[in-house]
What does this fold into?
Amino acid sequence: MRLVEDPIKSDTVAALEPNGVEGRTVDEPFAEYREVGVADPLRQGDVLEAVDPDATMWQRHLLVMTADCDFAYAKHQGRVTCVPLLAAEEYLSEMQIPKIREQLVKPQLKAIRQILAKAPVPTISDRRLREWASEEAPADIVKMLDLQQTDAQKVMAALEAIRMMDLPVNTLKEGVGLLVEAQLIGASPPKKRDNAVKKVVDHLRGSYAQPPGDALFLTAIGPGQDAGYFAYLRHIEPVWEPEISLGPSHREVVYRRISRMRDRFAHALVQRFAMVFMSIGLPEQYEELRDLHAEILGDNFA
It folds into this structure.
């Protein structure tokens, strides 16, 4: 007898002998998507790929969120609601590196604040200190603050670390590299480089196993698209249905469908999407003004 585990939970097929003893295991390929044919209508969970090779990361790959019933009864009026599927490196660089940066800047600002609290200088906000670090050389700032010896060295190191953290980056590798180096040159640096790397990388790794509520990691989204992606559910991209090709087409289109998410993953993504945009209570004053605007509109047509 052969017992097959849920293919969505595992990519392993366990073979059991007649006596119930587990035998060898057979590895099977796993993917969150399945392939679809031209005859399959557009549905929720379909993955679209931009025809334009220069499409932005927000438009390169999209996931259809419009409900199947809206397609069936044409309630969507031809507008297909989608969210972007970002390459893992793009998502981490765009969404997670800034969060890590904010956490690493805090101890540097705290070190500066502790020293300035003892010095006869005007009160300077954290925001201004951070801006200042990017505007002028740390040595010049320390000189203007008239700091001496150990205090001067510590503040200069913290300012240099902040300046480095806030430098613009183009890739995930650049972002990680700057955050690591900034820790090593800042105030109270880690004893080992590995510790600085770990502080950044551990946060990035957490995005996979424990992503924020507005994202979900997918290992693959279509044939040949298996480098890892994050569905980002806060960014909505509308697409006109006629601009989507479901197969080979001679007409000009903007997107072509390349796959469809398996039901379990499509449902999980839709559930997360709904949680992001759940109804939020609004102030009473808003409701009163809203009703007033509605009444005024009615008076105009009286």
In short: Confidence is low (pLDDT under 50) at residues 1-24. The longest strand covers residues 79-87.
